[in-house]
Amino acid sequence: MGLEWEQLVIDAADPVALGSWWREALGWVVVNDSAEEYEIRPEPDRLPGLLFGTAPEGKTVKNRLHLDFRPDDRDAEVERLLALGARHTDIGQRRDEPWVVLADPEGNEFCVLGERPGG
C-alpha cells in the first residue's frame, strides 16, 4: 500500500477569490473552479495541488501549518507578492531571520525563504 500526496486543503471565506489569488501568485492552473471547491495545481496532471473550500468561521489564530517558498530572489518575490495583495505579518519571528513572513488576502501565513544555506 502506498500514499500519494494529492492536495492541501485551505479553508476560505471565498474559495474562488482566495484560490484565484494563489493561482496568480504561483502561476498554477485551475483544475476545478466550482464555488465550493476551487483547486489549482502546478500543471493539470501534476500533484500536489491546493484545494480551497468554504469555511463558515473566520481565521482567528496563527496557522498550525503553513507553506514555505524558496524563490531565486527573495526580495523581488516579496515585492511581487505584496503588489498582488499579500501583506507582512508578525508571528513572533526575529527581525534577523533569512525569511519573510507574509499573509494571503484571508490572513493565511506563508514564508518566502532566503538563499539556501551553502548556496
UniProtKB/TrEMBL annotation:
Transmembrane segments: none annotated. SUPFAM superfamilies: Glyoxalase/Bleomycin resistance protein/Dihydroxybiphenyl dioxygenase. Residues 4-115 form the VOC domain. CDD domains: VOC. It comes from the Bacteria. PROSITE patterns: VOC (PS51819). InterPro entries: Glyas_Bleomycin-R_OHBP_Dase (IPR029068), Glyoxalase_6 (IPR041581), VOC_core (IPR037523). Pfam families: Glyoxalase_6. Gene3D superfamilies: 2,3-Dihydroxybiphenyl 1,2-Dioxygenase, domain 1. This is VOC domain-containing protein.
